[in-house]
């Protein structure tokens, strides 16, 4: 989670070098603490020529179930370019209606809505701590998240070790970053994103936005993965 000072530094650097900025706020609102940043104040202190676009998502913070709606707030200089993109679709009127109703509940600070969001955040924070504990006990190096539905960790105890490709089978491989996903899936049934997906060499991504029973099952499987070193 970025602080106001960090956002100021990042945006000032972009303005200095004339970079176009795209900010992804898909997980904003799912922070485990109240730390937030104020984009309006940060932009007000910069040159108005800085191009800033904003990506967002209503599905996560709005607890909207099957309704999945992302949005993009564009700098005016990019609007025409995006309007001409082939395949660009617009949400159905019923989806827009539902999104407006949920946004209204948020703006009105509806108690039922805010309570539901608060419960979800507490659940995600608890899962984050539980997953971190299991991974660290199993030889992973964890980067603890400050919010959201995922965690990044490095399989420090496993990299470059020879392990069986599948449980109970004789074939062995050296466990490299590129092989981590497939080997982990074959042993645990849990799918993670490897370093080639995260863009952080050696670090994998776990997502814990699951039903309670599925999360509990995944935690047990992850804890048993250390048996591959035996």
TrEMBL record:
Keywords: Methyltransferase, Transferase
Protein name: Methionine S-methyltransferase
A Pfam family per the record: Aminotran_1_2
Taxon lineage: Eukaryota, Viridiplantae, Streptophyta, Embryophyta, Tracheophyta
UniProt cross-references to InterPro entries, sorted A to Z: Aminotransferase_I/II_large, PyrdxlP-dep_Trfase, PyrdxlP-dep_Trfase_major, PyrdxlP-dep_Trfase_small
Molecular function (Gene Ontology), one example: methyltransferase activity
Organism listed in the record: Noccaea caerulescens
Gene Ontology biological process terms in this record: methylation
Ranges for domain Aminotransferase class I/classII large: 1-222
PANTHER family assigned to the protein according to its UniProt record, in alphabetical order: METHIONINE S-METHYLTRANSFERASE (PTHR47087:SF1)
Domain of life, source organism: Eukaryota
SUPFAM superfamilies (alphabetical): PLP-dependent transferases
Entry annotated with the keyword Nucleotide-binding: no
């Amino acid at each position: 989670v970025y602080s106001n000072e960090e956002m100021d530094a990042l945006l000032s650097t972009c303005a200095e070098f004339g970079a176009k900025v795209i900010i992804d706020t898909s997980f904003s609102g799912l922070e485990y603490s109240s730390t937030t940043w104020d984009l309006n104040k940060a932009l007000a202190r910069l040159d108005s020529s800085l191009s800033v676009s904003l990506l967002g998502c209503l599905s996560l913070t709005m607890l909207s179930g099957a309704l999945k709606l992302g949005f993009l707030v564009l700098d005016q200089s990019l609007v025409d370019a995006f309007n001409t993109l082939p395949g660009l679709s617009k949400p159905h009127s019923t989806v827009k209606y539902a999104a407006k109703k949920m946004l209204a509940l948020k703006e009105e600070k509806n108690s039922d809505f805010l309570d539901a969001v608060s419960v979800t955040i507490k659940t995600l924070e608890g899962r984050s701590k539980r997953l971190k504990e299991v991974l660290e006990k199993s030889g992973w190096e964890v980067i603890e998240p400050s919010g959201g539905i995922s965690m990044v960790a490095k399989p420090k105890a496993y990299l470059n070790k020879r392990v069986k490709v599948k449980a109970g089978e004789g074939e062995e491989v050296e466990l490299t970053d590129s092989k981590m996903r497939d080997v982990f899936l074959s042993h645990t049934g849990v799918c993670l994103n490897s370093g080639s997906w995260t863009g952080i060499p050696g670090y994998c991504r776990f997502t814990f936005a699951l039903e309670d029973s599925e999360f509990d099952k995944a935690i047990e499987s992850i804890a048993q993965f250390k048996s591959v070193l035996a």
